[in-house]
Amino acid sequence: MTAQLDAVLQVSGLRITARTPLGEKPLVHGVDLEIQPGRVVGLIGESGCGKSITSLSIMQLLDRKTTTIEGSIRLNGRELNGLRSESMRAIRGKEIALIMQNPMNAFSPVLTIGHQCIETIRTHTTLSKKQAYELAVSSLHDVNLPDPAAVMKQYPFQLSGGMLQRVMIATAVCLRPSVIIADEPTTALDVDNQLRVLRQLDRIRSAYGTSILLITHDLGVIAEMADEVAVMQSGRIVEQADVFRLFDHPQHEYTQRLLNARPAFLAHQPSKEFVPA
Ligand SMILES: Nc1ncnc2c1ncn2[C@@H]1O[C@H](COP(=O)(O)OP(=O)(O)OP(=O)(O)O)[C@@H](O)[C@H]1O
Ligand code: NI
């Protein structure tokens, strides 16, 4: 086990409550989750169980007027819950990045892709505008976007969902954060690009020791990518274990049910033979 290493990200006792006109509604109540350096933790669980809202709360992106976050979210030993917005802005993107489930939400509709990428890079680095431009273009190239220079000049609405997703991935990885949260990073992509994006994430992880929280409904992706898996049900993490142990000996009844719903081709040992090109 990796108990001797300090967790990069440690979430404990996380509770998220929404304030609605009808009263308080608990959305997440009891999330404990930790990621060691350079590890990929898969987060699975049925639709609506609270995966996306957990990742938004880690990033401190939930509206504080309508939601309350209780518990502790430690990134490299520093408490994020309740941090002032400016301090959080300096961390977000630089130390921890989120690839959002819905890429449209990640961009301003009125600014070009280039403007937004360059601004993100320059907020966190001392690069000149030209250097930031070059870094953005080469990152877009890495996620296989054809004609990155043209993409830089376009507005979000001019790109398909899949293209925007790849722009978001490029922006998320280019500053080498210590943690990347990838919320369904491949759902908007065709099979070739799914593989390319997963390889890109895996390459980043091996090259820079980046930790990844990978949210997906695809157990094949979990089998290929994850070292550990956390299983979420109705706002709680019910089990977190090594991927082999979880697939072979799921402890929780809900995990057993999730795994039994997987396609037959996954019914044997998860292969760890996925070799990034
Ligand atoms: N701002 C909000 N206010 C109130 N309820 C919310 C808010 N955001 C999300 N919810 C609710 O919280 C629950 C969890 O939603 P969430 O998007 O985190 O699920 P998920 O596990 O990511 O699902 P999926 O797999 O479909 O993406 C849902 O019932 C959703 O309707
Ligand atoms: Ni979600």
UniProtKB/TrEMBL annotation:
> One short Pfam family name for this protein?
ABC_tran
Protein name (Swiss-Prot/TrEMBL): Nickel import system ATP-binding protein NikD
Annotated membrane topology is: Peripheral membrane protein
Q: Specify the domain of life of the species encoding this protein.
A: Bacteria
Q: Which PROSITE patterns match?
A: ABC_TRANSPORTER_1, ABC_TRANSPORTER_2
According to the record's subunit comment, the protein's assembly and interactions are: The complex is composed of two ATP-binding proteins (NikD and NikE), two transmembrane proteins (NikB and NikC) and a solute-binding protein (NikA).
Q: Which residues form the ABC transporter domain?
A: 9-259
* Phylogenetic placement of the source organism: Bacteria, Bacillati, Bacillota, Bacilli, Bacillales
Which keywords does UniProt give here?
A: ATP-binding, Cell inner membrane, Cell membrane, Ion transport, Membrane, Nickel, Nickel transport, Nucleotide-binding, Translocase, Transport
Species of origin reads Paenibacillus methanolicus
Q: Which reaction does it catalyse?
A: Ni(2+)(out) + ATP + H2O = Ni(2+)(in) + ADP + phosphate + H(+)
Q: Where in the cell is it found?
A: Cell membrane
Instruction: Please state the Enzyme Commission number of this protein.
Output: 7.2.2.11
Mention any one GO cellular component term assigned to this protein in its UniProt record: plasma membrane
Gene Ontology molecular function, alphabetical: ABC-type nickel transporter activity; ATP binding; ATP hydrolysis activity; nickel cation binding
